[in-house]
Amino acid sequence: MAERRLLALAAAALLCIAAFLAIGLKGNIAFVLELRLLKLAALVQVGVAIALSTVIFQTVTGNRILTPSVMGLDALYLFGQMLMIFLLGGIGYVSLDPQLKFGIEVLLLMALASALLLPMLRSRLDMGLMLLSGVVFGVLFRSLYALLARLIDPNEFAVAQTASFANFNAVRTDLLVFAAIVTAVAAVVAWRARHVLDVVSLGPDTATGLGIGWAGTVTGLLLLVSALVAVSTALVGPVAFFGLLVAALAERIVGTRRHGVLLPAAALAGIVVLVGGQTLFQHALGNATALGVVIEFVGGLVFLLLLFLGSRK
Predict the structure, then answer these.
(1) Is CB count within 10 Å lower at the N or C end of the chain?
(2) Helix 98-123 vs helix 214-236: angle between axes, to the nearest 10 degrees?
(3) What predicted TM-score, i.e. pTM, was given to this entire model?
(4) In whole angstroms, how far apart are CA 312 and each of 110, 123, 131, 133, 306?
(5) CA distance linking residue 156 with residue 94, whole number of Å
(6) What is the DSSP string of 245-287?
(7) Which has the closest alpha carbon to 152: 212, 65, 211, 83?
(8) Using one digit for the tens of pLDDT, what is the confidence trace for 250-283?
(9) Which CA distances in Å does 236 have to 10, 165, 188, 249, 292?
């Protein structure tokens, strides 16, 4: 049953992709198709990256409410970006190769995320403390981001301002190739680790008893999550509740937490929501509103619903 629903999700994703490419296609078809293919590649990467990072992070933390964005990883990425602008200056930052900048930011995010999150996971905090820690980290890094923004020149701040909010209409096409490599490698690693993730979901004590090296495994998975968060944030900006939305939607559709099904289901759900939503807003609604705003609103409602249902158990 779960496999059939997974195939239905795949068919829905292909239908959304075909609609995104074909609807309203006129004029210089080759030129329009090229632009749409670039944007489609970015949307697919973002959908896959956020979905996989959320599912893996929820498995590691043992909590269906926590996401990398809720724990402040996207704010941490933005702070690292602003820190580079502060240290190098606007001209120095812009003159760097985009792939080199992205690589530095990914490595910085991996290091900081591991330093912040590993102690919490090892101390096995409960859900309330983890949520509180995530809120504190998010506020801290956004405050540091705002502090550096006040210290730098306004012209330099304009360099980083566009990355401070999600925009699915203006993706970073200059990072597509490098981001695609990171996303593909991370997806392959996640797929190969699907059985390990099934064991990790049982908890640290049970996983250790079944032969999983908990510390090393959790560290590797957090590094993987950090790389995926960097990809999505670099391409479209921070999206707080999108991962929570697609992870909950995928679990609801396939009806299982088995990662061999849940990982591809979440990735396909992310593609359906992003590509299908962008197609709907662009062609049916005439870009009357931003897709990111709607996703954040619906995702926030899902977050509150899951929090309410969890408190009643």
Answers:
(1) C
(2) 140
(3) 0.83
(4) 35, 25, 17, 22, 10
(5) 10
(6) HHHHHHHHHH----HHHHHHHHHHHHHIIIIIHHHIIIIISTT
(7) 83
(8) 888 888 888 989 999 999 999 998 888 888 877 6
(9) 23, 8, 23, 22, 10
